[in-house]
Design goal:
Structural class: alpha/beta
Keywords: Lyase, Pyridoxal phosphate
Number of helices: 15
CATH topology of the largest domain: Aspartate Aminotransferase, domain 2
Number of domains: 2
Oligomer: single chain
Helix content: 25-40%
Cofactor: pyridoxal 5'-phosphate
Largest sheet: 7 strands, mixed
Number of strands: 12
Bound molecules: pyridoxal-5'-phosphate
Pfam families: Cys_Met_Meta_PP
Shape: globular
Radius of gyration: 21 Å
Order of helices and strands: HHHEHEHEHEHEHEEHHHEHEHEEHEH
Family: Belongs to the trans-sulfuration enzymes family.
GO cellular component, one term: cytoplasm
CATH class of the largest domain: Alpha Beta
CATH superfamily of the largest domain: Type I PLP-dependent aspartate aminotransferase-like (Major domain)
Length: 388
């Protein structure tokens, strides 16, 4: 099946009891055993079945299987948030005394997790520029147990060559984990480029409507079983209703993404020619340093972009305070257009030096382009830029 058919039908069948097209929401904490012996068999894993929703639930499992299928992975697991998905992946793979190598440009929350919390568990973290492939090779040591990247990266849309990283990870015999939140499996499937694990903030494009928090991890069946074994004790589960909302969002993933991408390209082109704009960051622009790699590993360039203004931070503030249709808010991947200032908001966990090192300028403004009419969005930005 083609991807746009997969998102609608993949893994989903009318329910056996009433032939409902929409999957049932199994809104239950626990599941009744036929008798005491069956309960014991389920706990011993001698029989397959559901016990308790922190361990598994039919609506949640359906979603996890669906995302795995879309990502060309064997299996998946749903988490309470994207950060929970990343945290649980780390604790399943890396233990005290070992270390992680991560690209330096990542979501500010992930950065705080890696910088402040993971080291408390005795796990070392090295942040490096993963597009420096020679350095990457040298930084991965015997102690390194995970290579982590985001591409396109939040917030600068930095592009990293997944195949090149996968090759290095393979040589070093460690897994490569890619945060695919910005691209979604419609635009980029890291496992097809050699990655081992893919994580998502399902809060974003997978859900698509800004009404839930969730995270997903997909990968090999053996790894997902280990992850499940740990996650069920950590209590990182999500709710059946959230899983259902993500399932519903996924049905329109391809039509939403097509619109996000075409709108973003039009806005990037508009901003490129604007006299107040210093630089536009969008991987679909030919002068973006990652354009060739993005063209190779993505089918379209996504719905996220950013820009620096000639007037710096004050001008950026003026634009954010002047937009009428766009909303000043963090998060991304919603049908609504959202605008924010990474240095003081999503990436305020970075110090000034860390921001500088990653090229997140003080005046940089990030836009999650929605699915509104692009002319209305351009008009809104035009009137806001005129206020500088
Ligand atoms: C790329 C990326 N990964 C992970 C996360 C964390 O996801 P959540 O907010 O669902 O925990 C975010 C949140 O913005 C993100 O942008």
């Amino acid at each position: 099946m083609h991807f746009d058919t997969e998102v609608v039908h993949g893994g989903q069948h009318p329910d056996k009891l009433h032939r409902a097209i929409s999957p049932p929401i199994y809104q239950t904490s626990t599941f009744a055993f036929e008798d005491a012996d069956q309960g014991a068999r389920l706990f011993k894993r001698e029989e397959k079945g559901h016990i308790y929703t922190r361990l598994s639930n039919p609506t949640i499992d359906l979603l996890a299987r669906k995302v795995a299928r879309l990502e060309s992975a064997e299996a998946g697991l749903l988490f309470s948030s994207g950060l929970s998905a990343i945290f649980n992946t780390i604790v399943t793979l890396v233990k005290s005394g070992e270390e992680i190598v991560s690209d330096d440009t990542i979501y500010g929350g992930t950065f705080a997790l890696l910088k402040n919390i993971i080291p408390r568990l005795g796990i070392g973290v090295k942040f490096i520029d993963a597009t420096d492939y020679d350095r990457l090779k040298n930084e991965i040591t015997e102690k390194t147990k995970l290579l982590f990247i985001e591409t396109p990266a939040n917030p600068t849309l930095k592009i990293i060559d997944i195949s090149a990283c996968a090759e290095i990870a393979k040589q070093k015999k460690i897994p490569l984990c890619v945060d695919n939140t910005f691209a979604t499996p419609y635009l980029q499937r890291p496992i097809e480029h050699g990655a081992n694990i893919v994580v998502h903030s399902a809060t974003k494009y997978l859900g698509g409507h800004g009404d839930i928090i969730g995270g997903v991890v997909v990968g090999a069946k053996e790894f997902i079983e280990r992850l499940w074994d740990d996650a069920k004790e950590i209590g990182a589960c999500n709710s059946p209703f959230n899983a259902w909302l993500i399932l519903r969002g996924l049905k329109t993933l391809t039509v939403r993404m097509d619109k996000h991408c075409s709108n973003a390209m039009k806005i990037a082109e508009f901003l490129t020619g604007h006299p107040q704009v210093e630089r536009v960051y969008y991987p679909g622009l030919k002068d973006h340093p990652g354009f060739d790699i993005a063209r190779r590993q993505m089918s379209q360039f996504g719905g996220m972009l950013g820009f620096d203004l000639k007037g710096g931070k004050e001008a950026g503030k003026r634009v954010m305070n002047s937009v009428k249709l766009c909303t000043i808010a963090v998060s991304l991947g919603d049908v609504d257009t959202l605008i924010e200032h990474p240095a003081s908001m999503t990436h305020s966990t970075y110090s000034d030096e860390e921001l500088k090192k990653c090229g997140i300028n003080p005046g940089y403004v990030r836009v999650s382009v929605g699915i509104e009419n692009p002319d209305d969005l351009i008009d809104d930005l035009k009137q806001a830029l005129a206020k500088i």
